[in-house]
Amino acid sequence: MGVTFPMFSKIEVNGEGRHPLYQKLITAAPTAVAPEESGFYARMVSKGRAPLYPDDILWNFEKFLVGRDGLVIQRFSPDMTPEDPL
């Protein structure tokens, strides 16, 4: 038997309709750590993709590290890889 209920749905991560999960994540970590001399933010702005607010999720693959205790440890920019030193 297959699943008969929706497993995924689109949610808002920015703006007034921001999902409560992202509201909590962003409140705990309002800015993302980026690699040195990343330039990612500047590239997004040059393509007309500037965030409306400083704490907005910038792009896909922005990451939040959450500890086993449920507390947000850090937020990382989309171009930060697990191999990047902090």
Automatic annotation (TrEMBL):
- The protein's superkingdom reads Bacteria
Q: Which UniProt keywords apply?
A: Oxidoreductase, Peroxidase
Q: State whether keyword Oxidoreductase applies.
A: yes
User: What InterPro entries is this protein classified in?
Assistant: Glutathione_peroxidase, Thioredoxin-like_sf
Entry's Gene3D superfamilies? Glutaredoxin
Q: Has keyword Oxidoreductase?
A: yes
The UniProt entry's GO biological process terms, in alphabetical order, are: cellular response to oxidative stress
Q: What PROSITE patterns does the annotation carry?
A: GLUTATHIONE_PEROXID_3
GO-annotated molecular function: peroxidase activity
What PANTHER family does this protein map onto? GLUTATHIONE PEROXIDASE, THIOREDOXIN_GLUTATHIONE PEROXIDASE BTUE
> What family name appears in the similarity comment?
Belongs to the glutathione peroxidase family.
Q: What's the protein called, per UniProt?
A: Vitamin B12 transport periplasmic protein (Putative glutathione peroxidase)
Q: What is the lineage of its organism?
A: Bacteria, Pseudomonadati, Pseudomonadota, Gammaproteobacteria, Enterobacterales
